[in-house]
Automatic annotation (TrEMBL):
Membrane spanning residue stretches: 144-162
Keyword annotations of the record: Ligase, Membrane, Transmembrane, Transmembrane helix
The keyword Ligase is assigned to this record: yes
Sample GO molecular function, one term: ligase activity
Boundaries of every AMP-dependent synthetase/ligase domain copy: 86-307
Ribosomal protein listed as a keyword: no
Phylogenetic placement of the source organism: Bacteria, Pseudomonadati, Thermodesulfobacteriota, Desulfarculia, Desulfarculales
Name of the protein this chain belongs to: CoA ligase
InterPro entries per UniProt: AMP-bd_C_sf (IPR045851), AMP-dep_Lig_C (IPR028154), AMP-dep_synth/lig_dom (IPR000873), ANL_N_sf (IPR042099)
Domain AMP-dependent ligase C-terminal: 356-445
Amino acid sequence: MSKYFANLDLNSLSPEEICHYMEERLRAQLPYCYTNSEFYRRKFQECGADPRDIKTLEDLRALPIFMNKDQERLNAVESLERDGHPFGTHLCIDPRDIYVTATTSGTTGVPTFTYSLTREDVDNFAPALGHRFVMNGLQYGDRVLFIFALGIYATTISLFGLRSVGGVPIDVDARAGSELMLRFAAQTRPRFMATTVSLAEYLIGKSKGIIGREVGDLKFAGVFVTGEVGVAIPEVRQRLEEAYGCPVYDYWAPAGHAIAITCGSREYLGLHAVAPDLCTAFHDLVDPDTKKPVAIEDGAVGEMVVTSLKRQAAPLVKFATGDVVQLSNQPCPHCGFPGHRARIIGRADDMLVVKGVNIYPAALKKVVESFTPQVTGEMRVVLETKPPRVVPPLKLRLERSSQVSDEDLAGLANHIIKAMHDQLKIRPVIEWAAPGSLEKSTRKTPLFEKRYI
């Protein structure tokens, strides 16, 4: 763990010196974006700023938001209609020079080609994407069972990272079904697995019937999960680690270059930002409602804002990610990591307002999980009107476990409601679902059940 950062030059620098390193790149990136993208030229002009005057991270934080997912989608529509490509008007290169492209998951709307990269971009990002796995035990030649929806999707970018550090991905498309996934796991004997929390949980119940072995018999040295808030909840992590018989790590890379991973601490200490030289995501937060800057201090809560620091094809400038996090800038008490860490609170566009109280589904799930094994942990937030405002009471559909009788459900519901009130200041209505009736997804399990038109 002495080589905390993927860029080895950063490991000998203080936090202040790392910020100066980032600012040097910032002073080159912003004029590049201004020169090569009409969208960014217009945004700078609209706020009366000259990119050459943005010299520090503090200067950057003073700029307004330039783009979010909705604006990115509009950029894509405009470039497709006018220029014949879907990469957006913020593209800074000839589209013919794109080496690889991948989209967001589309769980919050039409997918966008955020992950459009030149060959130089890939070479720049890949070592950091791979380094986070090395930090937690990946060695040269290790096989990694890599199960996601492959092809055009963002998670595919991580394959460049694995290969750059000598990992050997056994990449199986999640849409192929659990039988193929598990048979490849048994046949290739990978040392690690990378997937979503939902799919890791789903395979636990399928393994014995398909390959005649429990998932723990596959003897993984570690499981890497991403895409969902899960292992930050102690009960979820314990359930996975007991089943697989190995550590489970949370990893992340919003926009492809806000690269982070957890360490092996028993306590969840946040995602460690291993590549601060690639973007500003862990150094720029705004209030999710007002979009005003939030001071970057230990314990700060806000929506992450990405500005690329070394990106050619489709750099992002003041891009509001929608990810609301709690930031730590103190060294990790377990592994000593000296950089910034973040705990995901939820998505800004998932936030609900119940009688003036802001609620994130991740917080609801954390309370629900504390009642396992009486519940399975599967849940849906029932929406009868368009969010974010909810006409009280909030309704939750929870999956009971098979060990709970019908007579016990009312008492269990009362205990959950009390815990929700004590921790979140709300009193939801509980609807019960039969064991196994809330389907797990091979990608991201949905948080909401929408009952409005």
